[in-house]
């Protein structure tokens, strides 16, 4: 049977249009497929950059237009350098701030001094200077005094505490001071109730005729107290001793911890 024997007489059977015996819609479908295949090949390839460098994936934070906070850059963990893998922390940088310094409170007025090992204990009176520039002596033999126009015990510098060694009736407040030793404890209490401990570091004897005023009363980088009394030979004509005894004690620092 021929290809046209089955067609009805009087005309062709309705169907798809043809071009040269090939259905037109089939040609359109084949052409569309080729176009799609070409597009896939063009846009799905993975060519390398011209310089041969590999690409590195990076994730940038979203821009926050209404917040002043700057977030750190997040880099994928496959980032490598010649020194090996680099790991960038996302923890914000923190800079410690030193606490504000507070100036130490000025010591109160000294009211009591003691040297426990020597059984010396005395209240204190304020002393000034005489017209010739020398330190006023305490008005009582059994009571010591401190130079009120000078340094307060506990402040940086030398605080001066003076006392008599004896009297016509017997020993005075600083009679036992000549037995002081390095390491002895000197305790000073102020009018605020604060108690400060000082440790004896030097014991010196000076002739009154060549007393080193600058060395005894001059500046000191540390808080010290200087206990002063008379010593040496007694000059009957002048009614006083020829020398002075100076016991220097430094403020004891509290132990750490």
TrEMBL record:
Keyword Transferase: no
Pfam family name, one: Sortase
UniProt keyword Membrane present: yes
InterPro entries associated with the record: Sortase (IPR005754), Sortase_dom-sf (IPR023365), Sortase_F (IPR042001)
Transmembrane segment boundaries: 20-43
CDD domains: Sortase_F
Keyword annotations of the record: Hydrolase, Membrane, Transmembrane, Transmembrane helix
Name of the molecule in the record: Class F sortase
């Amino acid at each position: 049977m021929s290809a046209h024997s089955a067609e009805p007489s009087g005309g062709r059977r309705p169907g798809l249009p043809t071009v040269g015996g090939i259905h037109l819609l089939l040609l359109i479908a084949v052409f569309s497929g080729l176009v799609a295949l070409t597009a896939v090949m063009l846009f799905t390839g993975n060519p390398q950059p011209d310089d041969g460098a590999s690409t590195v994936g990076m994730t940038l934070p979203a821009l926050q237009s209404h917040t002043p906070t700057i977030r750190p850059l997040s880099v994928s963990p496959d980032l490598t350098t010649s020194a090996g893998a680099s790991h960038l922390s996302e923890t914000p940088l923190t800079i410690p701030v030193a606490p504000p310094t507070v100036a130490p409170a000025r010591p109160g007025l000294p009211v009591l001094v003691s040297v426990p090992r020597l059984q010396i204990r005395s209240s204190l009176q304020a002393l000034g200077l005489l017209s010739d520039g020398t330190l006023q002596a305490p008005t009582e033999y059994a009571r010591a005094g401190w130079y009120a126009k000078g340094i307060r015990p506990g402040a940086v510098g030398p605080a001066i505490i003076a006392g008599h060694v004896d009297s016509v009736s017997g020993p005075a407040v600083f009679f036992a001071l000549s037995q002081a030793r390095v390491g002895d404890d000197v305790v000073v209490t102020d009018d605020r109730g604060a108690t400060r401990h000082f440790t004896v570091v030097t014991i010196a004897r000076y002739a009154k005729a060549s007393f080193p005023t600058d060395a005894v009363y001059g500046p000191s980088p540390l808080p010290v107290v200087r206990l002063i009394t008379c010593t040496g030979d007694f000059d009957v004509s002048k009614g006083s001793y020829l020398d002075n005894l100076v016991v220097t004690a430094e403020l004891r620092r509290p132990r750490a911890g």
